[in-house]
Amino acid sequence: MRFAVLVSGQGTNLQALLDAAARGELAPAEIALVLSNKPGAPALARAVAAGVATAVVDHRAHPDRRAFEEAMLLELRRAEIDAIVLAGFMRILTEHFVAAFPHRILNTHPALCPAFPGVNAPQQALDYGVVVTGCTVHLVDTGVDTGPIVAQAAVPVEDGDDHDSLHDRIRVHEHRLLPEATRLLAAGRLRVEGRRVRILPG
User: Fold this and answer.
1) Active-site residue, selected from the candidate residues 59, 103, 109, 138
2) Residue 62 is among the residues annotated as catalytic for this protein
3) Cα separation of 72 and 179, whole Å?
4) Which of 20, 64, 59, 65 is nearest to 41 (CA)?
């Protein structure tokens, strides 16, 4: 299954996917394209270093979200993409885009969904005063971090944590769960049953 990874920033989750692929741990998933909405995003350099094709569709170059998403879909069709991973992609996708890849878009979020959706989830957790937060890998629907959950990991909040220290510990688990979820999706082992995702035996 040919995957595109959509990115906007540094690309640490992308790097986890690229490293897993290099170790032979991502098959039958193939990272075939890395697409960014931001020219010059550091994630693009990670893709180039790994020998993966890249594309840029700058959202600022399009008059509206529909035109932006159509431009992305054109790039994805050109690359014969079967499924998508969102790895720090900071744009909300509309129903039009999601419908092109039903139950074939994965996202990672640095919180235990449904808690703390949207941006700055580690800071939201700190501000709320929770003692445990974590990360979630889920299939994407038309909401914000609301899709069916594939995997989660809990991370304790420690005394003295700030956004960066907490997020760093959350990323360790994201970097483990996201490649595994990608592999399971490519292998046809994720079955959506209502709000639940059943992992089929291998």
Assistant:
1) 109
2) no
3) 23
4) 59
The helices-and-strands tally (H runs, E runs) of the chain is 6, 9
- Give the pLDDT confidence score for residue 184 in this predicted structure: 98
Place of tokens 């540094």: 10
Per residue in 47-102, pLDDT (tens digit) is: 999 999 999 999 999 999 999 999 999 999 999 999 999 999 999 999 999 999 99
**Angle formed at CA 77 by CA 75 and CA 78, multiple of 5 degrees:** 65
Residues of the chain with pLDDT under 50: none
pLDDT computed for residue 202 by the predictor? 85
3 state SS of 78: helix
Q: Which CATH architecture has domain 2-199?
A: 3-Layer(aba) Sandwich (3.40)
Say how far apart CA 112 and CA 133 lie, in whole Å.
6
Domain spans in the chain, listed from the N-terminal domain onward: 2-199
H or E element that contains 169: helix 163-186
